[in-house]
């Protein structure tokens, strides 16, 4: 699966300390981790409605973005930066929390439905395209996890103590695919991200 290199990485979340550790901010966590790996500082950029960073990458550049517009207006930030630097939808990776995957799971895909995720919905509307890539970080669903909790309340709370390490492991595993994503080697990146290591026998 040969494709364009990723030129813009967007982490989805909500701004402010009250949301920093909530499940809905998993995309922010991933971009924070990538920024540390690339030794970049995310800084406020009003014209892009968020925190952004820029780095040389071979002969090109990569941009990191955390919208501070709140989740349901994420597309305003993404579209502003993408249009300014002439970045195509297929050159954008959006990292977000995913209810349909268990904590510890991660999946890479291109295009498709927003599946009710307000951040993806607004990005798709503002770009006028669904062709961007998505890195889905599993947070589980309250029903799947045996919780009697509305989805809106669930995503705006912290992961449980046993879930946090699993989400962090998925972030670290999927970060290993960054060099492939930056080169447009999507089949290699997909295999790295989508394959969750099996626990050694005897554990647990």
UniProtKB/TrEMBL annotation:
PROSITE patterns: PEPT_TRNA_HYDROL_2 (PS01196)
Catalysed transformations (reactions): an N-acyl-L-alpha-aminoacyl-tRNA + H2O = an N-acyl-L-amino acid + a tRNA + H(+)
Top-tier EC class: hydrolase
InterPro entries for the chain: Pept_tRNA_hydro, Pept_tRNA_hydro_CS, Pept_tRNA_hydro_sf
Annotated site residue numbers, Discriminates between blocked and unblocked aminoacyl-tRNA: 14
CDD domains linked: PTH (cd00462)
Enzyme nomenclature, EC number: 3.1.1.29
Coiled coil: none
Subcellular location: Cytoplasm
Broad class of the protein's primary localization: cytoplasm
GO process annotations (BP): protein quality control for misfolded or incompletely synthesized proteins; rescue of stalled ribosome
Residues at the site labelled Stabilizes the basic form of H active site to accept a proton: 97
Keywords: Cytoplasm, Hydrolase, RNA-binding, tRNA-binding
A Pfam family recorded for this sequence: Pept_tRNA_hydro
Amino-acid positions noted as binding tRNA in the UniProt annotation, renumbered to this chain: 19, 70, 72, 118
Active site, renumbered: 24
Family: Belongs to the PTH family.
NCBIfam families named among the record's database cross-references: pth
Function, in words: Hydrolyzes ribosome-free peptidyl-tRNAs (with 1 or more amino acids incorporated), which drop off the ribosome during protein synthesis, or as a result of ribosome stalling.
Known partners and oligomeric status: Monomer.
PANTHER family in UniProt: PEPTIDYL-TRNA HYDROLASE
Designated name of the protein: Peptidyl-tRNA hydrolase
Organism (species): Chitinimonas arctica
Record lineage: Bacteria, Pseudomonadati, Pseudomonadota, Betaproteobacteria, Neisseriales
